[in-house]
From TrEMBL:
It comes from Candidatus Acutalibacter pullistercoris. InterPro entries: 5peptide_repeat, Pentapeptide-BTB/POZ_domain. This is Pentapeptide repeat-containing protein. Transmembrane segments: none annotated. It comes from the Bacteria.
């Protein structure tokens, strides 16, 4: 396996190309673009991604731990597949931060995201399934077509978030905070007809 430790990658572009058998440890990626590329048997540990685009990558046997993302556009990533199941069960995450990121059509399955700060993110079309999101901050997020299935959302903050509508029956929501008018979507998800709004 080829290794890069503490390296900086600036404006690297991969479109439909393949990268295989590479370890990236404590590397910095700035203004890189990865579109439809195939990454196979790669590992990312402690890396930082700034102002990067990661669009519909094909990830095969790729692992990621404790990476940070800032100002990135990310779509079509299954975050849960980037952490080995035993590590995921111990609370390890592929990322430490997702600041000012667009995370469209991503999958978050079985992750412990307790208290995680998603504030201001565009999570359109993403799926949160069987996650611990207790105390997570979704304030000011765009959540259109985002689904929340069987999650622990207790004490989560959805104030000023837009576009959400999910089942109150399939998620634990005690103490979660919402703001009007968006919270009306929670009532319509129960099959209620609302008038006069």
């Amino acid at each position: 396996m080829k290794e890069f430790v503490g390296e900086t990658f600036h404006k690297v572009e991969l479109e439909g190309e393949s990268v295989s058998g590479v370890l990236f440890e404590d590397c910095l990626f700035t203004q890189c673009r990865v579109k439809g590329a195939v990454l196979e048997r790669c590992r990312f540990s402690g890396c930082q991604f700034t102002d990067c685009l990661l669009s519909a990558p094909k990830l095969k046997n790729v692992t990621m731990l404790s990476c940070g993302f800032s100002g990135c556009g990310i779509s079509g990533v299954d975050w849960s597949a980037l952490v080995e199941e035993r590590k995921r069960d111990m609370g390890f995450l592929p990322f430490d931060s997702l600041e000012r990121c667009s995370l469209r059509h991503c999958l978050f399955y079985g992750l412990d995201l307790k208290g995680f700060d998603f504030s201001g993110a565009d999570l359109t079309g993403s799926t949160f399934d069987s996650c611990v999101l207790e105390g997570a901050d979704f304030s000011r997020c765009r959540l259109g077509e985002t689904s929340f299935l069987q999650n622990d959302l207790r004490q989560a903050d959805f104030r000023q978030a837009v576009g959400y509508s999910f089942s109150l029956e399939g998620n634990r929501v005690r103490g979660a905070r919402f703001s009007l008018p968006e919270a009306v979507g929670l009532l319509s998800a129960l099959g209620l007809e609302l008038e006069g709004l």
